[in-house]
Amino acid sequence: MEQNYHNILLVRASENQNNNYFKLLKQSDVWEAYCGEEAYDKIGGYTGFDLKNWITQNINWHTDLLPETVEHLTNSNLLKYLEW
Prior knowledge:
Layout: E1 7-11, H1 20-27, E2 31-35, H2 37-47, H3 51-58, H4 61-64, H5 67-75, H6 80-83
Parallel strand pairs: 1-2
């Protein structure tokens, strides 16, 4: 890779919701890893678009997905992955 190349990882969930793999990447010298508000700030900085505000206004996982899907995710304890 080019010498000035930066690997950037952006994760929606806040750091206290992230898994250990994300934390390892964040601590590495290879990745610039951002999560939660920092991730949205980076996206806005690169694109000039307030993605978090758009998501807040336009996405509601519980009503946008089929009820059967929400039920399956709930029963399987997987709803948190929609945030990740």
